[in-house]
Specification:
Blueprint lengths: L2 H19 L9 H10 L17 H9 L6 H27 L4 H13 L2 H6 L7 H15 L6 H13 L5 H13 L2 H17 L3 H18 L3 H5 L3 H14 L8 H20 L7 H17 L15 H13 L6 H24 L8 H11 L5 E5 L6 H7 L5 E3 L23 E5 L3 H4 L4 H8 L2 E9 L3 E8 L2
Parallel strand pairs: 1-2, 1-3
Antiparallel strand pairs: 3-5, 4-5
Helix pairs in contact: 1-4, 1-5, 2-3, 2-19, 3-4, 4-5, 4-7, 5-16, 7-8, 7-9, 8-10, 9-10, 9-15, 14-17, 15-16, 16-17, 18-19
Length: 479
């Protein structure tokens, strides 16, 4: 494949990636995205006041700048996720030639294609949260490390590492992988250590913020008994989910025959192809890029629950490069196995992506439509929305814009002994009460608010149900 053909095919892969990422880009914000948007549209001097959000501040600063030009969902997501995701695919294609002289361009193209059609990568290229952004910096830094000749390499690596550390607290796990690889590259090791040392010094201002965020997180865990189950997973399940998301994408996975069969087929085929490779050492940078961050983050999660596939999105380019290598390099005797592996990966990705496009249960919480329905059907002069939380749900607050009056419990959890008698304000003059069941398993497991509303002589007249949000109860005054 000559360079011109490679460039044309690279453009087609990127065009396909963009086409698959546009349809749902303007969908409703879900809870965390709305919280991100609300924080980012505050005045600039409040952009570092992000203690409740366990993330570094770079994405807040980026979104704060672009929100002056528009606050539509598609616009904010474009800068926070879509553009980083697209550049990540382009860099993955560019890394291919650094890995293999004969088939490098094909490896990069196939890896880019696997990223382009992956529902996992598509989803987080449309998410207003800092997952696509650190994936960009990790991929770019590996491009810097692997590029054969590059002037001022240590300056580039320092800059990208600083950007990564200001994007995600899990970025150090990527650095561990890069250090492990650079140990084998004596000529680059000293300058790279200098790069990481400079980057560490430049990110020292994050330490007080991180400590305060850890303190805040511990406070939330103490107030909400089941919060641990939301932010963390059992360790064995976490590893299984990581593999499942890389292979199957956004599906709500369960350990069932189809999962086991397809996973077994892919793993067995990949192992056979790996054993047939003549030069396994050439795969070392890809394996280190993928395995060390996953393993170290997983082990660290025994101390602090941080392991989630979306937070490790930055290993996915390595996963795609690995499978592309296995399919394209070496033994012609195993061409049938390679075709089976390639067709399985593409078929699973296409089916998963199609399912994501058409199934609301695999998309995001549609707070925009729910809010519009409530605003349309219930008079704000005689309606009160009630939520069991310490503040309005960010997604409701973003779309409601204070049109329908809202009351919150002011507490993270109303579970006994925190429940209060006669907690509600005077609602006797109101016609309609709207009560969300959203998150009440955590914030009101004993249904304190429901009981209080019914004591005030209100009864359920209707129920609105939305995927992922659950039931919203409409109470009417019986007086």
């Amino acid at each position: 494949m000559d360079r011109k053909q490679w460039q044309v095919l690279s453009g087609l892969v990127l065009a396909l990636a963009l086409a698959l990422r546009l349809p749902l880009l303007g969908g409703s914000f879900w809870l965390d995205e709305a919280a991100q948007a609300l924080e980012s549209v505050r005045p600039w001097w409040q952009q570092l006041d992000i203690i409740p959000d366990f993330q570094p501040p770079l994405i807040h600063l980026i979104i704060h700048l672009v929100q002056y030009f528009g606050q539509q969902e598609w616009w904010l997501r474009t800068w926070a996720a879509l553009i980083p995701g697209m550049i990540t695919i382009w860099l993955t294609i560019q890394i291919g030639p650094f890995l293999n002289k004969k088939r490098g361009r094909q490896i990069g193209l196939l890896a880019g294609l696997l990223l382009a059609i992956s529902s996992f990568h598509i989803f987080y290229s449309q998410e207003l949260r800092p997952y696509s952004l650190p994936a960009l910096w990790v991929t770019a830094s590996w491009w810097v490390i692997l590029k054969p000749r590059l002037n001022h390499r240590w300056i580039w690596l320092s800059s990208l590492t600083v950007l990564g550390l200001y994007s995600s607290y899990l970025y150090p796990f990527a650095i561990l992988g890069q250090l492990a690889y650079l140990v084998t590259r004596g000529r680059q090791l000293i300058s790279s250590l200098k790069s990481f040392a400079v980057s560490g010094l430049l990110t020292l201002p994050l330490v007080p913020l991180l400590l305060n965020q850890l303190k805040q997180g511990q406070s939330i865990r103490s107030q909400i008994p089941n919060w641990e189950s939301v932010v963390s997973l059992p360790q064995l399940k976490a590893l299984t989910l990581m593999w499942g998301k890389l292979l199957f994408g956004v599906f709500d996975l369960a350990i069932e025959p189809s999962f086991i069969l397809i996973s077994g087929l892919v793993l067995a085929t990949a192992l056979i192809l790996y054993k047939s490779l003549k030069n396994k050492k050439a795969l070392m940078p890809i394996l280190i890029w993928m395995v060390i961050p996953i393993l170290t983050a997983w082990l660290f999660s025994f101390l602090l629950p941080v392991f989630r596939p979306k937070r490790l999105l930055f290993v996915f380019p390595a996963w795609s490069l690995l499978f592309s290598w296995l399919i394209l390099v070496d033994s012609k005797k195993l061409n049938l196995l390679k075709k089976i592996l390639l067709s399985t990966l593409i078929a699973v990705s296409l089916y998963s992506t199609w399912s994501y496009m058409v199934n609301p249960k695999l998309q995001r919480e549609n707070w925009r439509s729910l809010t519009a329905e409530i605003q349309k059907n219930y008079d704000p002069q005689s309606t009160l929305v009630i939520q069991a939380f310490d503040d309005q749900f960010a997604s409701w607050k973003w779309y409601n814009q204070d049109r329908v009056p809202t009351w919150t419990s002011g507490q993270l959890s109303l579970s006994a002994p925190n429940g209060a008698v006669d907690l509600l304000p005077d609602i006797s003059h109101l016609k309609t009460i709207v009560l969300f069941s959203y998150l009440t398993d955590l914030t009101d497991p004993d249904q304190v608010l429901k009981q209080e509303i019914e004591k005030k002589n209100f009864e359920i007249s209707d129920t609105i149900t939305y995927p992922l949000i659950g039931q919203t109860f409409i109470y009417e005054n019986r007086n």
